[in-house]
Amino acid sequence: MGMIHCEYARLAADDFDKARTDLTWALEHIDELAGEWTQVDLPAKEARYFSIGTVWGPLHTVLRVHGGMPVDPVHGGAALASTGGITPARYLGPEDVEKAAAFLVGTSFDILAPLAVADHVCDEDVCPDPAEHAAETDAALLAEAYGELAAFYGAAAEAGDAVVLMLN
Description:
The structure is a single chain. The chain is of the alpha+beta class. The chain has one domain: Hypothetical protein yfbM fold (3-Layer(aba) Sandwich). It has helices spanning about 15-20, 25-40, 55-65, 95-105, 110, 140-160, and strands spanning about 5-10, 50-55, 80, 90, 160-165. Strands 2-1-5-4-3 form a five-stranded antiparallel sheet, sandwiched between helices. The N and C termini lie close together (about 10 Å). About 35% of the residues are buried.
């Protein structure tokens, strides 16, 4: 299995409404946002598209073990469409984006860091040897990804945007 990345796209209210009714348009629009992101390389707070790369598994586990998330900013939301990725694209509407942002921005990674252990990387069915992913539980990498994810969700919440989540 190749390396799986967790990617996000911010959709403004009008685009969000259109995306839920026109899935072909939604996927094309998300692809356009991804192309812009790779060319411009904006910081997470300014980006309409963003990726936390391969640390999504350990980061998701840390968030689940913590248990305080009101919504899941990595695997949450409702199904939008199949993208050819590992799972169908999912979305969090603006209200859930606000909840996710409040948690991420309001919770210091220092509180979460002790929960980042290689044994909790992911489900045994997906990766039976967590030791293979020890580098992804590096506190500095997780802290950076968490800070970027908090900035991305914070900007999305501030703008009233929805967020589409994809595992590719």
